[in-house]
Design goal:
The structure is a homodimer of 231-residue chains. The first copy, chain A, is of the alpha/beta class. Chain A has one domain: 3-Layer(aba) Sandwich (Rossmann fold). Chain A has seven helices and eleven strands. Chain A has helices spanning 23-30, 47-60, 74-80, 91-100, 104-112, 123-126, 174-181; strands at residues 4-8, 36-40, 64-67, 84-86, 118-121, 155-160, 190-194, 197-202, 205-210, 214-217, 227-230. In chain A, the strands form two sheets. In chain A, strands 3-2-4-5-1-8-9-11 form an eight-stranded mixed beta sheet. In chain A, strand 6 (155-160), helix 7 (174-181) and strand 7 (190-194) form a beta-alpha-beta unit. The longest helix of chain A is centred in the N-terminal third of the chain and has 14 residues, at 47-60. Chain A is globular. The two termini of chain A are 23 Å apart. The relative contact order of chain A is 0.17. The model of chain A is unreliable at 222-227 (pLDDT under 50). Chains A, B: Pfam families: Peptidase_S51 (PF03575). Chains A, B: Belongs to the peptidase S51 family. Chains A, B: Its main location: cytoplasm. Chains A, B: It catalyses: Dipeptidase E catalyzes the hydrolysis of dipeptides Asp-|-Xaa. It does not act on peptides with N-terminal Glu, Asn or Gln, nor does it cleave isoaspartyl peptides.
Chain lengths: 231, 231
């Protein structure tokens, strides 16, 4: 399988600039052969402003950015893309827009069949997985399904947070939420990507990159996640 | 309108017992005329255990508990109920189960037409409102819609949290999430109920009870929330 993915937990680490903590990994991932990256800004409301942020940053790394929201035909833009980057924001809004624009199957085909490199950040990492059932976001819009692009056989929880033993807040911890998910039938394993980390998927191998460790909540029922190396 | 609601932010305050912080308000709300309360445990996976917890606690306040999950006919159980209490847990799981059992319209009719008192806690407060678009929960199952019972013309965010200026976590604050919701068209106002607080709705008047203040995010477009007194 040609699949190549870079799934980033979050675009900005505390105190750093946009995509600053993962800029070397981005350059290594897209490499010198990719010249133009198709950006998908659907997760935020102001898509022009979001595109400018991504365009300015990726320009400093040597890449031109086309935004799918500026394309006359978004499906055709995906068909022509050399590389794809789906930015973070609200996962429900993002997934709904991907379905509204008929891009889910198109992106899947491009990545799995044609080997187009796919980078996602936060919500953009969620939609690359089996489903968005393990997003942290508020369900501000109703997508036609929670099933996502399905580029990998597991789910991700980005911005993963360890329980805070000193907290007096009574909302469920992140781990409790993921365990509640696994009470439901036929749920895949969940990889908690702490802020600062990212998952590089090449073919059938996944490698954890970045400054933090992974939290892995294996499915009680179904497929194991793929081979995983933590550097 | 006969409507009477007690919408509690959370069932347990840090360091306290189940429903302990609101037990006086529960007694005042259901009063001596209600003898039996219909409990809805759908938000948690172990409904037997959850029912026992609610039953034991409400017994100490003078109320017998019937659980809807023990009823041969849940719709008939709602039709016969003197009072309804929907407990917290996962809001998506709860709303899906309410639809699966055809209880949404039935509960709405009982509360708005017959004046049956309705108490909700956390997820049980979310489903009493316009929609579950402002829940904090993880979307572990896919309900047929995010529209909820609609007993009030606004939404609630339970367990409301103020932004923590010292946090290094880069996930959106609660306020940012609610503001993202209001970027979408035709969204109602959102009442953030901090832990320890609850909203008493009687007819067209809402009163804040408990130990914490309300966070109110008015809709940019649509109806104002009702008259609100903060005690």
């Amino acid at each position: 399988m040609k699949r190549r993915l870079l799934l980033v937990s979050n675009s900005t680490v505390h105190g750093g600039g946009y995509l600053e903590h993962c800029q070397q990994q981005i350059k290594d991932f897209f490499g010198p052969q990719v010249k133009r990256i198709l950006f998908v800004p659907y997760a935020l409301h102001n898509q022009d402003s979001y595109t400018k942020t991504a365009r300015d940053k990726l320009k400093t790394l040597g890449y031109e950015v086309d935004s799918v929201h500026e394309a006359a035909d978004p499906v055709e833009a995906v068909r022509q893309a050399e590389g794809i980057f789906i930015g973070g924001g609200n996962t429900f809004r993002l997934l709904k827009a991907l379905y509204d624009h008929n891009l889910v199957t198109e992106i899947k085909n491009r990545v799995l069949q044609d080997g187009v490199p796919y980078m996602g950040s936060s919500a953009g990492s969620n939609v690359a997985t089996v489903s968005i059932n393990t997003t942290n976001d508020m369900p501000i819009v109703y997508p036609p399904t929670f099933s996502a692009i399905g580029l990998v056989p597991f789910n991700i929880n980005p911005h993963y947070l360890d329980p805070d033993p000193n907290s007096k807040h009574m909302g469920e911890t992140r781990e409790q939420r993921i365990l509640q998910y696994h009470e439901e039938p036929d749920t895949p394993s969940v990889l908690g990507l702490r802020e600062g980390s990212m998952l590089l998927v090449e073919g059938n191998q996944a490698t954890l990159l970045g400054s933090t460790k992974l939290y892995l909540c294996k499915s009680p029922l179904t497929a194991e996640p793929e081979t995983l190396r933590q550097h």
